[in-house]
Each structure stands twice: as structure tokens, then as C-alpha cells.
């Protein structure tokens, strides 16, 4: 388990980095699976990829991977090693939410942008309320060395300043790609594990042919579980073969209640 000091830092800042958490052998298989997904996804989303895409999602669904590759991803997500960090941050009953793959945009002039994840489906008042929970947390694994991310530390617990809100929502003539004085850069190397709250103000930093996998876990709350796609969950046979299937089982149980 993570130390109380590390957890306290996460609670205060909204993020933590575990350097060299994954070995090269662990990353090798992961790179192969994600490369297969990415090639299939690009073919189906060629125009979107060329125009503005910076990420894809639902990697564990059946659409772009065979069951052997899906099970390999499930095994990685359900490893005891990762579970220890997830439960330290979220609590004893985390639920699996989604996966995302992040990459550089094709258009080299495309700007990165400040945002909170909930802003795309919540009103301002709802975004403020979301700061009180339930929680959604990204667990990001860079597959290559990359420029990393910029984060507004502590913004997972507090509302935007006027300057931050103007930039994030592009109000009063501001643009979401403008620099913010409160931003802090976190560079990442292959094998690091970056943990950060989906509620915090953040933006990716493009360059170096970045390629990273984000695994999202959350509190098992109905208002969040509605975003979980059942096609991304393992079937009963796969569940039995996983080192740790608790987070998947929690998601399946919550989806069954609805």
C-alpha cells in the first residue's frame, strides 16, 4: 500500500507519480496490444484522426481487439500490483470505468487545452458539485518517454479562479490553449504511473510521439456507472482467469442494479 504521506500528497494536490512503476517486460506486451487496437481504430476513424483526434477510448471492447488481446488488457488492469495503488487512492471498492489511449494529433499546429473531464456533460453548478465526489481517477501509463501533462494542483478540491475559468471555458475572449500561471508540468517516462483526479484542471502536452494508456477507476456510484459501457467488461470465463477481478465485478454488479 502507498504510504500515508503519499496519499496525503495526492489528496492535497490531486495527483501523484510513481516513477518506474512498470518494468520493460510489462510494457512490451502492453505496447503490442495497444498498437493493434490503434491500427484498427485509425482505419475506422481516419477522418477524425486526421482532423483533430488526440485520444481513443473503449480499448477493452470487442470491436478492435480479439479476445486474447482483450484478456491481456484485462489481466494488466486487474493485476494485484495495480490494484494496490487503486485501492490506496480510491478505497476498498473501486469500480472499473474505461480505458483511453492518448497520442499526438496529426496536425502539428493543433493546440492542447485546459479542461476538467466533467465539463463535457455537466453544467457549471454540476461541475462545482462534482468536486465533492464521487470520484473518477485516471491511472496513466506512458509507453514511451513523453512531455507529460500540465496540472493545476489542488483544483480537484476547489473551483476555478476567474482567470482559470475564462481560459477553460473560453470566456471573455480567452482561449483554452493559453498558458495559466497556476499550471505545473509533470514530465513522464515509459513505465511511470501518473495518478490524477478527473476533476482537476489539466491538459496534455503534445510531442515526442507520445503514446499512453489511461485506465479510469471510480467510486461505484450510480451517477458515474451510467458511463460504463458493458461491452468493455470481461465475460464470466475471463473473470475467473484474472489475478484480481474485483473492480470489474463491482462494475458488473452496479450495472445490473440499474
What does this structure look like?
It contains 10 helices and 9 strands. With 258 residues, it is an alpha+beta fold. The chain has one domain (4-257): Jelly Rolls (Sandwich), CATH 2.60.120. The strands form 2 sheets. It has a 6-stranded antiparallel β-sheet. The protein is globular, with a radius of gyration of 18 Å. The mean pLDDT is 95. GO terms for molecular function: 2-oxoglutarate-dependent dioxygenase activity; iron ion binding. Keywords: Dioxygenase, Iron, Metal-binding, Oxidoreductase. This is Phytanoyl-CoA dioxygenase.
Outline:
The protein is of the alpha+beta class and 258 residues long. It is built from ten helices and nine strands. 37% of the residues lie in helices and 20% in strands.
The helix count comes to 10
Strand order of the largest sheet: 1-7-4-9-3-2
Oligomeric state: single chain
What is the CATH architecture descriptor? Sandwich
Which percent range describes the beta-strand content?
Answer: 15-25%
> The biggest beta sheet, please?
6 strands, antiparallel
Report mean pLDDT, rounded to a whole number.
Answer: 95
Name the poorly predicted regions.
Answer: none
CATH class: Mainly Beta
Task: Tell me the domain tally.
Answer: 1
Q: Helix amount, in percent?
A: 25-40%
Order of helices and strands, N to C?
HEHHEHHEHEEHEEEEHHH
Distance between the amino and carboxyl termini: 32 Å
Radius of gyration: 18 Å
By CATH's scheme, which homologous superfamily applies?
Answer: q2cbj1_9rhob like domain
List how many beta strands DSSP finds.
9
Protein name: Phytanoyl-CoA dioxygenase
Organism: Nitrincola tibetensis
Keywords: Dioxygenase, Iron, Metal-binding, Oxidoreductase
GO molecular function, one term: 2-oxoglutarate-dependent dioxygenase activity
